[in-house]
Amino acid sequence: MPKYDKADVERRMAGAVEALKSDLSGLRTGRANTALLDPVVVEVYGAMMPLNQVATVSAPEPRMLSVQVWDRANVTAVEKGIAHANLGLNPMIDGNTLRLPLPDLTQERRKELAKLAGKYAEQAKIAIRNVRRDANEALKEDEKKKDISEDDRKRLEEEVQKMTDKFVAEVDAAAAAKEKEILTQ
């Protein structure tokens, strides 16, 4: 039974790209995005829970996020969770709702966010290259076990490299688009 599985390699590389897109959606640009609060965890009922399990997050205005807390007793805990997330947001409590006005980004902060987007992209590229390495090792093992010939191994390694190049190009495109969005908002 060969160890190399093209579908698995492609799935893992695509997963790295999806993880990058998820990370990039959490980076703040000029307008409100509910994904900005995805990393926020809140201490409620004696446990740490993601914000989306104790409240509804919406963006009613382009420069404002609204967090509707389901249980009134958790409003201050949600406020603390948002403050501890270091997102640069200052929540205003209005009954069960927290309003989060988004301050303007300074040019310095924009550059920091663009650099962070580049860092996320590099992590995704590393993940893709690790998948390539694993696939190439599996191909060499298959050749050693006589499951495939040397010619097949070389052909499949080229195929893996083409997949790698395709997914790295996707990462570069996603990062470039996000950097442009951050710097021009």
Textual characterization of the structure:
- With 185 residues, this protein is an alpha+beta fold.
- 56% of the residues lie in helices and 16% in strands.
- It is built from four helices and six strands, in the order αββββαββαα.
- The strands form two sheets. It has a four-stranded antiparallel β-sheet, covered by helices on one side.
- A hairpin with a 2-residue loop joins β1 (41-44) and β2.
- The termini are far apart.
- Keywords: Coiled coil, Cytoplasm, Protein biosynthesis.
- This is Ribosome-recycling factor.
- Its main location: cytoplasm.
What is the element layout, followed by pairings?
Layout: H1 6-25, E1 41-44, E2 47-50, E3 55-61, E4 64-69, H2 75-84, E5 92-94, E6 97-101, H3 107-144, H4 150-184
